[in-house]
Amino acid sequence: MTRITSARELAELRQKLAAERDKTKRWVMVCSGTGCVACKATEVSAAFVAEMKQQGVPETTRLRNTGCYGFCERGPVIVIQPDNICYLGVTKKDVPEIVKQTLLENQVIERLLFKDEDKKGIAKFAEIPFYKYQNRVLLDANTQLDPKSIEDYIAIGGYSALCKALFEMKPDGIVEEMKRANLRGRGGGGFSAGRKWETTRKAPGDVKYVIVNGDEGDPGAYMDRSILEGNPHSVLEGLIIGGFAIGANQGFIYVRQEYPLAVEHVRQALHRAREHGLLGENILGSGFSFDVTVHCGAGAFVSGESSALMTAIEGRVGQPRPKYIRTSVKGIWERPSCLNNVETWANVPLIINQGVDWFRSMGTENSKGTKVFSLVGKVQNSGLVEVPMGITLRDIVFKIGGGIRNGRKFKAVQSGGPSGGFLPESLLDLKVDFDELTKNGSMMGSGGLIVMDDDSCIVDTTKFYIKFLAHEACGQCVPCREGLRQALKILEAMTTGTAKAGDIELLEELCDVLTNASLCALGTSAANPVLSGIKHFRAEYEAHVNEHRCPALVCRDLVHYAIDPQKCTGCLLCKKQCPTDAILGERKQVHVIDYDKCIKCGNCLNACPKKFGAVSKAPGAYPQNYRPPVPAAAAGAEVRP
Amino acid sequence: MKTVTLEIDGKQVTAEEGMTLLQAANQVGIAIPTLCHDERLKPAGVCRICTVEISRGDWKRMVASCVYPVEEGLKVTTDNEHIRKIRRMLVELMWPAWTRVDKDLEPAHPRFDSGHPDCNMCGLCIRYCRQVLKKDVLYWEGRGVDRHLAYVPGMGKECVTCRQCFSLCTGGWIVACHGYDEEQPAK
After folding, report:
1. What is the domain range of residue B57?
2. Which residues of A touch B46 (CB under 8 A)?
3. Per the domain annotation, does A477 fall within a domain?
4. Alpha helical stretches, state H, A247-387
5. What is the overall mean pLDDT for chain A?
6. Do residues B159 and B85 both lie within one domain?
7. Interface pTM (ipTM) of the complex?
8. Which helix (H) or strand (E) holds A522?
9. Phi and psi of A304, rounded to 5°?
10. Which of A279, A256, A266 is nearest to A228 (CA)?
11. In total, how many domains does chain A have?
C-alpha cells in the first residue's frame, strides 16, 4: 500500500473505493460484535460463505462481517441490504434456507423476524421498535463497515473530517468549535470536552498528550467496547484531530485487556492507518506528525479514573492522585494530558464534518448530542441504544426496551453503573441528560441502564454495588476504604437479618463522609446507590432492619421455601434436584422440606412444574412453627476450644 | 517568588505560590489536625483528617488541605460542625489504629471494627523508606478493602537494623513486626 500524501489523493482513493462498493448490489451483513460472536456468529458467517458459493449466488451479492448492531440479546443479527431485512437469532442451520429463499428467491422468512406484541413479524430493520425510536448517529457506521478494513471506513467518508481539520481549520478554531458544540465528556463526569481541550492547549509545555479512556468497567455496560470493536477508526480519527487541535504529537489508547476483540481491532486500525500515512510523520503532507500507542489495562476498575489511568500508563500501579492541579495541566509524566472517553472522541469527526449546529440541534439545553446507553436487566429487548439527550426514561425502557419481561412490574432503573443511583417509577418521565440525572441523585456515568422489576431487592443490589466498589477501589484514602468496608458490613447485616436499629442513619452518616472527604470520584460517588436507595425505597430498608424481612423475597437469609401440601402431587421432580437431600417424601407422597438441611438454593422452586406450582418462597428465615435444633453448647455438651 | 492572598478562618493570609493550604494555615498559627502528613515527605492526601472547606462566592467544597494549593482570593474554613463531624467519623473508622487525637475527635463509643487495629495505612513508613531512605522495602499489597502493608520478599532484612520508620509509625504495626523476620513473614 502506498502512503497517501495529500488530501486530494485521499479523496481520489475514496471515490475509487466507493465505486467498487457500488458494484455490489446486495450485502449480507453479519454482526460480529462480541455478543454475536458469543452466539456463534463466526460459524454463521462461514456457513454463509460456503452456502452462497454452493447455491451459486451471483458475484454481486457479498458478505460483510460488521461491527456491533446493538441488539445483542437476539444475536447473531443478520441484515440483508439494501432491502434492510433483519433476521435475529440466526443459527448455522438457518443459513441454507436464507440463501435459497431470501437471496435467490427474494422471499422473507417469517420465522426469523422480530415479533411484535401480536406475534406478527417485522421484516424491516428500521421498523423494529428497538431501532425505530433510536437516533443512531454514532452507532450507524458500525453497521456499514467491516471494522478490520480501513477501506470501508474511507469509502463511507472516513478521515474526511481529519482532512477538513488539517487543511481548512486552525487548531484554535477547532477548539472554539468544540467549545461551541458543548460536547460533554461521555465517560461520566460530563465536563465540557472543548474546555478541557482549551486548558491543555494553553497549558505550558512543549510535549502534550491526548488519551482515549477505554477502561470501561461498570457491570453491565459495554458502549465503549462496541465502538472500539465496531468502528475503531472513528475513535482514532477523533484522537488525531484532538492531537492537532491541542498540539500533541503522541496519543494513547487505553483499552481493557478483557476486551480482546477491541484490542485486536484497535491495533489493526493503528497499523492500517500508519500504512496509509494517516498516522505517523507528516500526516497527509500537512506537516503534522502524530502517533498512538495502545496500553492494555490490567483489570482494575479504578484505573478508569483519569489520574489513575495516567499513572497506569506511566507504568505504575493505577491509583488516583489528588487532582487539585488538573490532569489537563499536569498529567502523564507531569505533562499536559487531555483525556476523553471513547464515545467522546468518536463524536469529534461527526461534529467537524456535519457542523456544530447539526450537533447542537440534538439534545437538551446543556447536554447536546446523543448518548449510547446499554439497556440491560429485566427488559424485553436489551442491547445498546443510542438516543438523543433529553429522551424520557419511560421511552427508553418501554418503547425501545419493550417493557418489563414476563409481565412483571417495573421497579427502578439503576443508571451510571455502581456509582449511579436508583430511579424509581415516579421519575420515569425524567428527561435523561447529565444535569437531570445528577439532580436526582444518580449520574450519567458511562451510560449503563440496569432495569429492575419487582423481583429485585434494592438492599441486595446496593450490597452488590458496594461490594464491587469496596474491592475495586484503590484503597488509598480512609473514607473510601474504611467507609466502604463498614457500609458493606452494614448492608450485609441487613440482608442476613442481623441489622440493628439505627443502621440506616449510620449508613447515611458514612455516605456523608464518603461524598465529602474521599480522594477521587470513585469514593465521592460511591454513596449514590445507598443514598438514592434510602431516599426512594426507605420502606424496603426499614423492613430489612426492623422486621428482618425482605419484601422482594430475594435476600436468602430472610426467606424460606415452602411446599404447599394441597398442591404437591408427589412427583419427585424437586427431590431429584435438591443438592442436599433436604426434601423428604416418596412417589405420590406429599414432599416436605427439612430446614436443617435446606441451603435455599431455589432448585425446588425451579423444578416444580408450573401447572402444580406447589413450591413457593415465603418471608422469614424459617416457617413460623419451625424450631431450629438446639445448639450442642447450649444443651450442656462439652465444647472444645 | 509570587505571592497570593487568601482568607483562612477570617484572617487575611499571604502565602507563596505553590504552598498548600495546610502550610499557609500553619504559618499563621492555625492548627489543622493531620495524620499522614510529614514535612519531609511529598504529601499524599490519604488520611483526609486535614479536610477543610473552601469557598469562592456560592461555590464550596471539602478538600484535603495538605495537598490543595493556595489560590488567590480563596476562602478557607478550617473548623466547623460539618468538618468536625467528618474528622470524628474518620478517626472512628480507623480506631484503634490511630488514637493520638484531641479529646474532641475521640469517639465515645467506637462502632466499627476495621480488622486491622495496628495499622491505619497512612503510608508514612512506605513513603519514608522510598523517598528519604531510597530503599523501597515495603509495598502495598492488594487493593480496596484488601489493601495491606507488606515487605518486598527477601528485601526486609536490613529493617531489623535500620528501624528509622519506627518513630513515624502511627498505628504500631511496623513496631509490632519488629522489622522483618525471615522465619515468620509479616502478615
Report:
1. 3-105
2. 476-478, 519
3. yes
4. 260-275, 306-313, 342-354, 356-360
5. 92
6. no
7. 0.93
8. helix A521-536
9. -75, -15
10. A266
11. 5
B169 plus B139 within the same structural domain: yes
Choose among B97, B45, B78, B149: nearest CA to A523: B45
Indicate the residue among B60, B78, B105 that finishes a domain.
B105
Among A218, A223, A222, A213, CA closest to A295: A213
Residues A212-232, mean pLDDT to the nearest whole number:
92
Q: Across the strands, what pairs with B4?
A: B15
State pLDDT tens for residues B78-100. Answer: 999 999 999 999 999 998 888 88
Work out the average pLDDT over A177-189: 91
Q: Residues A223, A232: contact at Cβ < 8 Å?
A: no
What does the block give as the cell for B42?
A: 511529598
The answer to whether the Cβ–Cβ distance between B48 and A484 falls below 8 Å is no
Residues of B in Cβ contact (< 8 Å) with A317: 140
User: What is the nearest CA distance from A257 to chain B, expressed in angstroms?
Assistant: 18
Residue A384: closest CA among A360, A405, A365, A400: A400
**Whats the size of chain A, residue-wise?**
641
Residue A230 lies in a domain: yes
pLDDT category at A636 given cuts 50, 70, 90 is: low
Q: Look-up: residue for cell 428467491?
A: A105
Domain with A572 in it: 557-619
pLDDT by residue (tens digit) across B33-48? 999 999 999 999 999 9
DSSP state of A398: I
Measure A418 CA to nearest chain B CA, in Å. 15
Residue A10 covered by a domain:
no
Q: Residue A384: is its pLDDT beyond 60?
A: yes
Between CA B52 and CA B37 the distance in angstroms is 15
Q: Which residue has the higher pLDDT, A2 or A77?
A: A77
Pairing, β A291-297 against β A250-256:
parallel
Confidence class for position B125, pLDDT limits 50, 70, 90: very high
Residue A28 three-state SS: strand
Q: Which of B44, B62, B114 comes nearest A517 by C-beta?
A: B62
Q: Give the total residue count for chain B.
A: 187
pLDDT category at B49 given cuts 50, 70, 90 is very high
Residues of A with CB under 8 A from a CB of B: 300, 302, 317, 321-322, 324-325, 469-479, 481-486, 488-489, 506, 509-510, 512-513, 516-519
Q: Write down the residue that cell numbers 461490594 correspond to.
A: A467
